[in-house]
Amino acid sequence: MAANGQPSKRATVKWGVAVDLKRCTGCQACTMACKLENGTPPGVFWTRVLEKEEGTFPLAYKVFMPLRCNHCSDPPCVPVCPTGASYVREQDNLVLVNQDQCVGCHACVVACPYQARFVPGSNAGYYDEHTPYEDTNYKKWQAGTAQKCTLCVHRIDKGLRPACVETCPTEALVFGDLNDPRSKISTLIRQRSHFQPSAELGTDPCVFYLT
Amino acid sequence: MTNAFNTQLRAQQEWSWLLAIWLFLGGTGSGLFLLFLLLGLPAYFAVIALGFVLSGGVILLLELGSPLRAWRTVFRPGTSWLSRGVFFVFFFIVSCFLSIAPAFEIFSWLPWSETGLLAKLLGWIAAVCALMIILYPAFFFHSTSLAIPFWNTPLLPLLFVSYAVLGGDGIVLLTASYASHIPAQVGLLAIILIALNAVMIAIYLLTMDRAGGSAKESVGLLNRAPLRWIFWVGVVALGLIFPLLGILFMAPAASTAGACILIGGVLFRYCVLKAGVYVPPALVADVTDWSKLNRTSSDFAREYAGMTAQRTSRPR
């Protein structure tokens, strides 16, 4: 990886997620699957579905927008990191945090336009005492350091899909390699009208919303 | 830290009083050191400046989530203004200390004198570092300006410099009634800087209000409770208008004016931090054709038939 946080030329895989807004029903199953898989602390949701009320009676409806880290091709959160804990993985485009190096300065949290980064202050769980589940899963992250959606990097490395994609009951989430023109995600992006979240910021997100 | 599940505009929650106090201590201390050098103030002002920056550094450590790893922040001076800032603070503390140390009895064994060339050189190195300590937070805020448009302005570094020098001036005013050798320009300088700050804040808020979106919401936050009281009463009335009137019409009240300037300085930084509103999530409705919600059941039937056909023919 170059010093400016850009992925090197060696990167051949570019993981991305396509979100079919016509299929998303706002069930928050991805939110829960993420919490179960990654054991995130209370109040922190690496992925979540935003809801917005639109229209007026009788044509009132809700629109949904699942959010996660966009694993931007030009991530604003990486160059602001003073320690190099935030990095773009060499072999693909995943924006990750080395929690052993993070000092918890919150710079990346503020720099991310998608509010996808979090610094939990403590190890406190949902109850007074840790449940057995929390005992096991809270070892996956350190309090006082930045954490974010890793696109379930531990699952990707085993050849599995991210937990949120796996669990989506309407198949609204599609995970795949954007560099492979024959992958399902590339096909969908070619065929359907789509947009990248806040693309005008120039971050070139790897999450595409199909409309 | 808690996520929101709706699309309303949201201000950053990460930084609050602790960082505002660091910005105040670092900026004011550095501003005081610049004044010390430019106006030829007595040496103990440089000690106060050094104390401000040092205590600010301690506050900054408290702000970190994992303070024991603070040494790691030196690794990315190529891209990160925070990393560069650590260097500026370090070099300021060292060069400021070395340049003023000979002025005091206990360091009289040092081989250079207070007025010698080496001390002068060290003093100017410290001055450059002091200027950068004032500026680097503004440059850092600019590097986060994709997320927070309120910080995306060249006025922010100017305001930080102006507030830093005004803060240094405030300290000099605060001690004016107890100290001797205070140059007469201090009062005049305060008046000029207060006027300058007021004009720049006005331009800042007006341009941000015109910019619309999140930046407009930031200005809105400053005009709504609870920030309204801190901004209009604390920053504008107590921090600018009151000291201006005090210096202009009540010369004996200079100390009080100095104290008010300092309080206004802390509150100004707090307001800038708390008014940082994130850009909103991309609005779904703007890009989706919701007129299709008016479809009838036969429309749906036709569409689903089409989708099924497409699904079976699509390559896997």
Task: Explain what the structure shows.
The complex is a heterodimer of chains A (211) and B (316). Chain A has helices at 29-38, 107-111, 132-137, 153-156, 163-167, 184-191, and strands spanning 15-20, 48-54, 61-67, 86-88, 95-97, 117-118, 147-148, 173-177, 194-195, 207-210. Chain A is of the alpha+beta class and 211 residues long. Chain A has one domain (15-210): Alpha-Beta Plaits (2-Layer Sandwich), CATH 3.30.70.20. In chain A, the strands form four sheets. A four-stranded mixed beta sheet of chain A has the order 8-1-10-9. Chain A has a two-stranded antiparallel ribbon with strand order 2-3. The two termini of chain A are 34 Å apart. Residues 1-5 of chain A have low confidence and may be disordered. With 316 residues, chain B is an all-alpha fold. In chain B, helix 5 (155-174) packs antiparallel against helix 9. The longest helix of chain B has 27 residues, at 117-143. The relative contact order of chain B is 0.13. Chains A and B meet through strand 2, strand 3 and helix 2 of A and helix 3 and helix 10 of B.
Short characterization:
Chain A is an alpha+beta fold. Chain A contains 6 helices and 10 strands. Chain A has a 4-stranded mixed sheet with strand order 8-1-10-9.
